[in-house]
Structures are given as structure tokens and as C-alpha cells.
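Progress report, Aim 2. The chain analyzed during this reporting quarter is listed below.
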Amino acid sequence: MAAPTDSARRPVVVVDDLHVEYRVLATGKRAAAVDARGGLLHRGRSTRTVHALRGVDLVVREGDSIGVIGPNGSGKSTLMRAIVGLTPATRGTVRAAGRPSMLGVGAALVKELSGSRNIVLGGLALGFSRQEIEDRHDDIVAFAGLEEFIDLPMRTYSSGMTARLKFALAAARDHDILVVDEALAVGDKAFREKSECRIREIRDDAGTVFLVSHSMRSIRDTCSRTIWIERGRVVMDGPTDEVVDAYEAN
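Predicted C-alpha cells for the chain:
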């Protein structure tokens, strides 16, 4: 059976001329001004505007798996946070069909509680019933590879263990639109392969997935389309192999 064309798949995320600006305190510099009465200099802090996104336009359709690449500080995470509604637009709009989810956001993990108790809290935050959490509990633990640690307080977990549990929680439900920001950088090869397989399953169930990563291998293995962002602008948007080849040659 032929794959559906773009025209046959409904748009689920539309980003139109999106700009995001921040006012930040300038560090390392002081603004000098003259006191009108005595001519003495006084020192005050200055601020500057950071233009994190500059006129980004995107149309993403159901079932797409979108890689998002670019150097640190290019605007990748800002774009993802704007899509899920965590960062407001300065200008332009973001429209989404359904409620986008970012991996780990909404999972109310508490360091003093055990991993098992956090599965309950995180599952409730994701909209599961208590019975659904009970039914999925062992699968979540096994996916995260935390069988020996699940009854220990999460303050004893490494950052990688915490990230694996967050991914396992998010992966336990289907998503219309899921944003995964660098999650596959944690864990061993087996965990990365499980994570990539689950992302493909979400995509194949007509969910839409954004994967932000510095791992070009993960992007190539998981994403059919890739967006290259640099200095807040889209440099290239197209088939993954073409975009990654151009990025690596840059």
C-alpha cells in the first residue's frame, strides 16, 4: 500500500512567522552614567534582547517524525517549548491540533519518594487512572531498566536513571504530538534502541513526534524529516538524509 501523500494527512502543528525574544541581564558589563548633580559616575546593570527565534514557519502533519538539529543555542529547545505552549510567542502564532506533550513535563517527580511512588504521581499527571497505572507499572519499570532500584528514593538516582524513568512514563501512553528533547542521550545502546522503537510506534499510530538531538545516528534512524535551525532561523527543512548530510558538511 502506498504511503499517504502530504495532502491526505491533516496538519497537526502550524508555526507561522514565529518570533521569540527574551530580555536578559547583560553579564560582565556595567553601564556608566553621570550623576546630574555632582558629575560622579555611578554603575548600573544593563539589559539586552536575545532574539531566540526569528520568523520560523513550519507545517507538520500527522504521522510525521521530525528531527530538530542545530548547534547549542540555535533555538531548538525554544521552538519545542513554544509548540507545547511553555514559551509565549513575541510575534507570530503556533497552532496545534490536540495537546502537545513534552517528555517529562507534567510528570510530577518528587526526589524524596521512591521510583514506584513517582510512577503513580507521574501517571496521574499524564491522565491515567489508578487502575491504568497499576496495569502499566511493571512495564514502565522494565522499560526504564530500574527493577533493582524502583523502591529506592529518587534522590539516590543518577540523572540518567531519572531521565530513563521519565521517558518510560511518557512512552506508556499514546500521544497526538510528542516532543522528545535529547532523551535518547541517556542509557546504553539497548535503551536507546527501545526508545527509538517506541517513538516509531507512536508515529505509526498517527502520532507526531519531534526529536531534538545532537546524535545524527538517532535522527537518521528515527526521523523521516529533519529541520536544521541556526541562530533562530530554519536553515534547511527536508528529508532527513539530505538535511543531515548538509549539516555534517557545514
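Helices lie at 76-83, 115-125, 130-144, 159-171, 189-204, 216-222, 240-249. The radius of gyration is 21 Å. These observations will guide the mutagenesis work planned for the next reporting period.
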